[in-house]
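Re: that chain you flagged

S.,

Sorry for the slow reply, it's been a week of failed gels. I finally had a moment to sit down with the sequence you sent. For the record, here it is as I used it:
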Amino acid sequence: MIQTTQLQALEKSLTGELFFDDLHKNIYATDASVYRKIPLAVAYPKDIKDIQQLIDFATKNNITLIPRTAGTSLAGQCVGDGIVVDVSKHFTNILAFDEINKTITVEPGIIRDDLNRFLKPFGLFFGPNTSTSNRCMIGGMVGNNSSGSTSIRYGVTRDKVIAIKGLLSDGSAVTFSEITSAEFNQKKIENTLEGNIYRAIYTELISEAAQQEIKNEFPKESIHRRNTGYAVDEFLTSDLFGGTEPTINPAKFLSGSEGTLVFSTAITIQLDDLPPAKSIMVCPHFNSINESLKATVIAMNHKLYACELMDKVILDCTKNNREQTKNRFFLQGDPEAVLMLEVSADTIEEAEVLANNLIEDLKVNNFGYHYPKVYGNDIAKVHELRKAGLGLLGNIVGDMKAVACIEDTAVALEDLPEYIEEFTQIMDKYQQDAVYYAHAGAGELHLRPILNLKKSADVTLFRKITTETAELVKKYQGSFSGEHGDGIVRAEFIPLMIGDKNYQLLRRIKKTFDPNNVFNKGKITDAFPMDQSLRYEIDRIEPNIETIQDFSDSEGILKLAEKCNGSGDCRKSPEAGGTLCPSYRATRNEKETTRARANTLREVLTNNTAQNKFDSKELKEVLDLCLSCKACASECPSNVDIASMKAEFLYQYQETNGYSFRSKLFANNAKYNKLGSKFPALTNFFTNTTLAKKVMGVATQRSVPKLAKQPLSVWLNKYQPTTSKKTIYLFNDEFTNYYDAEIGKDAVVVLEKLGYEVKTTNHEESGRSYISKGFLKEAKDIANKNVATFKNLITEETPLIGIEPSAILTFRDEYLRIASDKVAAKKLSENCFTLEEFLASEIGKGNIHTEMFTKASKTLKIHGHCHQKALSSTHASFSILNIPENYKVTIMNTGCCGMAGSFGYEKEHYKVSMQVGEDTLFPKVRNCSNDTEIVAAGTSCRHQIYDGTKRIAKHPVTILREALL
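Prediction finished late last night. Pasting the structure tokens below so you have them in one place:
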């Protein structure tokens, strides 16, 4: 039993960090698999010496180390009861780059797509391309021998590994790379652990009987996705072991070893030239899975760059995902399956010939019924649709989930149709509608049964289906682990897949490398049982969680948290685009991911014994840096809406622990602004003093927004609307009313001059501040009053238009959860629009013309508000700002600004707030020329841009007013 004092001593000895609190242990108890094991501690080593100290500690205390990068493993590779060693934060550097020989040496924590962004100017890239490529890391890809959609052209990770530097289980440094047979023989006489390893490999593989056993039992050589057990078959190419090659590379053997043999610290990989410049993706539609697989055999004769499959289950999941609906543009009808067949050439004319030949071949063989061709940037959208498949499976409402257990099988391409027919019979026997998707061209489909692993009957089925599928794969001499690894879920089937003699060989090799089980115990050899240590307690009584918000669309708040399957989309880097997850991007701490927050909500709401299950310091800590940006509600494939759950937590927690002065101040912002607006100059002077900021708990570095000279409501009361062809109602939100009254006037002037009658009525504020601070009783009261006010006024013909995105979009989002009259709230939400959305729609209808605006030239750069991006679209802003014919408009890829309402003003959040801004927004604004106008619809965004860059940003409607003739 490890004592806390021992961990405290270890913590002090490390340059990096060591955590052994309950929060971190719960966060790291899961990966993207179905497993959960509470680790002893979590380490963030800063250097190799730290890792050596961890190895020494593990050896002396008889515990194991679990190496981890992005934690997106599907088989449980990153789950264990020892110390999780997360290298994703500090081991992220490029160590060497050889452009001539097309090689690069990197630390294991560099993200695959980030690496390729670095390589692109040199015309090179790292070929293996997983669905998690925007957050998965090279160390994890080597550990799993990842491949992805490009393997039919560029091979798997093992094919690219040139050398691995790392630490052996005794802490000694080692490099595995290509050596001659003579060098191999020399190494095996060394009196070191490394020497022992070479001697053991030689002794085990020198006999013809051992070599033949491997050849007989391992997957067919034609299957390049082969990751079952250790790749001892790699040694058989050497002339030492019956092959013909004069060299041997143990680094290739280590690829796919899941961190069980060596702790990698540097990896050298071979690069490829970028693919040809012009590509066309043919996406034939099919009436059955089997038809699509038979078509795959034909299609693979056409030298494809990608051959991927999506089935109806995956496609149906995309219908309800905000981010993915736009990527369904190429679909016609309701196909049972769609193939993604990519051809490439140096010219588009050559690519057209290849695509047409492919389509003709499919038609001649009577495969498919619709053959859309996708070009240019749209190809990436189709790839994104497929890549989102893994996370989208988590969108299935309720406890039935598409379970990863048999999702990694690979067979020879010619065997694939027959194999799937027999697999379908197994599914039919168990009354299963499985999910079929992914790498058809490589003979691998990610097949998933849909099970409820909270129930013992389905856990039994979990084992039965996995066992029978393993036996079927063995019948076809396939690979049970194609690219996702063995981990926990498949490791205990290795003896079946490669024979017991070969399995015992693997055990002996593991024992030689790692006699004390220091590295990732329970994976590949002497495996943990595949149906134990599951994420959920089996046959538990489901907790009854009462909430003020309505989470029935996910069957309750707990099941909303449980929708997170660990796919880790929230860990993508700023360069990957989007917004998710701003606090992680700023800190690079797993604790600040959407995944960590969902995991903690799941753990606490399930296991907390307090009367108020939300009364938890762990929940308070993990949600503290959530900016409520809503990116998780759209960019997370599972739509895990942490912002809504944070609001609920704040309400429930504060009901027990009380509401702070500052929270009351920010929540009641509109009320205090109403008082302050009577003497705006005095209020503005006082609130910007250091004393006032300290009293309010606001960072002294901040400029506090200044009240307008006169609230917009006063001006509107005097305003006389003109009768026009179309009437709209303007929602005078609390931010525009008190701070941005001039923008409100701009909106009225623009709408009126474009021919719209602008009406107003007395209404409540939006409730945004109350929601953000967890004052949900007050927010509910406001929502109910606003729904009652507008439900009989707002129609399709008379919409409600808002200026501040976070305010008007509350009608489309939070009101649906919190309003009492759900029917009226839903109907109202369908006719509530941002000003940009409304104007863009009118432009599309031909009601607004370019002749109404100036012909002067202007360059505009748009920063989108987070709620606008999550619940609406910045393309509406782009559309309306392009109506002046000589305006050059660009949407900046800027993520979150970092202000997030009151978050950026709060003294303890100021540093993170500014770091979020520095991630993408501030540098891009600073790079804009002085004559470029910065455009931002959000009031918080405009203030953050000013505080971070001293540039003044304008609302889109102000730009339009200035452009009106």
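What I noticed first: The chain has 45 helices and 29 strands.

Talk soon,
D.
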